[in-house]
Design a protein that fits this description.
Organism: Streptomyces cinnamoneus (Streptoverticillium cinnamoneum)
CATH architecture: 3-Layer(aba) Sandwich
Helix content: 25-40%
CATH class: Alpha Beta
InterPro entries: SAM-dependent_MTases_sf
Distance between the termini: 51 Å
Number of strands: 9
CATH superfamily: Vaccinia Virus protein VP39
Number of helices: 11
Strand content: 15-25%
Protein name: SAM-dependent methyltransferase
Order of helices and strands: HHHEHEHEEHEHHEEHHHEE
GO molecular function: methyltransferase activity
Shape: globular
Number of domains: 1
Strand order of the largest sheet: 3-2-1-4-5-9-6
Keywords: Methyltransferase, Transferase
Largest sheet: 7 strands, mixed
């Protein structure tokens, strides 16, 4: 692959602010079928008090709010959270029951408000590679803020042979330094979500699969979108971003269509557990 081709598809800026915006504008929408399937199955709507862990830039919260739910979300990325505030709490609009917090579930607790009755963790990277972000502890704390029997939804990758994105994500795993193992992507194992739920003191109570294809307008958008996930951070630290972009483009090439778009079929799995 020529350096010119790499430069053409390399993001013009890789600042944290740009990557957060790329997540909100390119990548986050890829999980919309997952959000819709879960909300439909659990009948989210008026009377739902939702807590989202790893809420990102708030698209899933916005969709739940449109169904009539009261929504709260937390995230560890301040830049994504600021974009969520722009979506959910525009200047001059009443906040209602919406609360957004940086960090853990305790940041959005209301001492006088009702307990949550739905908890979601939609970001599949949260459950990849063990529990690098201490999710089991966060889930246990969140469960303490919920009604007894509240459904807790965990999402992860489906079988790797049914996830075209695995080809790109294997680049991240191969280039990452072994010392960065907690930040590396790895294929999901069959019982990952169940094991995580049990570690958090939750009881598995059903699951489902959803088709979530990754579709991009062009190769540059595909590179920007995938880099925005954070899955390639350890690889970039271990090598350099130009090498990551080069190998990522090569992995994406089989999914480049004649019209210039990139299309990657994927299947995601979700688990419903109970507090």
């Amino acid at each position: 692959m020529t350096p010119t081709l790499v430069r053409r598809h390399r993001p013009s800026s890789t600042s944290p602010e740009t990557r957060a915006r790329d997540w909100a504008e390119i990548q986050e929408r890829m999980l919309v079928p997952l959000y819709e399937a879960v909300y439909e199955r659990l009948e989210a709507g008026p009377g739902t008090r939702l807590l989202s862990l790893g809420c990102g830039s708030g698209l899933a919260l916005l969709m739940a709010s449109a169904r009539g739910a009261d929504v709260c979300g937390v995230d560890e990325d301040e830049r994504r959270l600021e974009l969520a505030r722009e979506r959910l709490l525009p200047e001059g609009a009443p906040a209602g029951g919406t609360r957004l917090g940086l960090g853990g579930p305790e940041t959005v607790l209301s001492p006088t408000g009702p307990l949550f009755n739905l908890i979601t963790v939609f970001d599949p990277l949260f459950s990849a590679g063990g529990d690098p972000r201490g999710l089991a502890g966060a889930l246990a704390r969140a469960a303490g803020c919920a009604e007894r029997g509240t459904p807790v939804v965990l999402a992860g990758w489906g079988p790797h042979e049914r996830c075209a994105a695995s080809a790109a994500l294997r680049v991240a795993a191969r280039l990452a330094d072994p010392m960065c193992a907690p930040a590396r992507w790895r294929p999901s194992r069959r019982d990952d979500l169940e094991n995580l739920a049990r570690e958090a003191g939750l009881t598995p109570d059903g699951s489902g699969r959803v088709s979530c294809p990754y579709g991009y307008a062009d190769m540059s958008s595909a590179v920007r979108g995938l880099l925005s996930t954070g899955a390639f951070d350890a690889a970039a630290r271990a090598t350099d971003e130009e090498q990551v972009v080069k190998e990522l483009i090569e992995a994406l090439h089989p999914y480049l269509r004649t019209d210039g778009t990139v299309w990657m079929p994927n299947v995601f799995r979700y688990l419903i557990a109970r507090t």
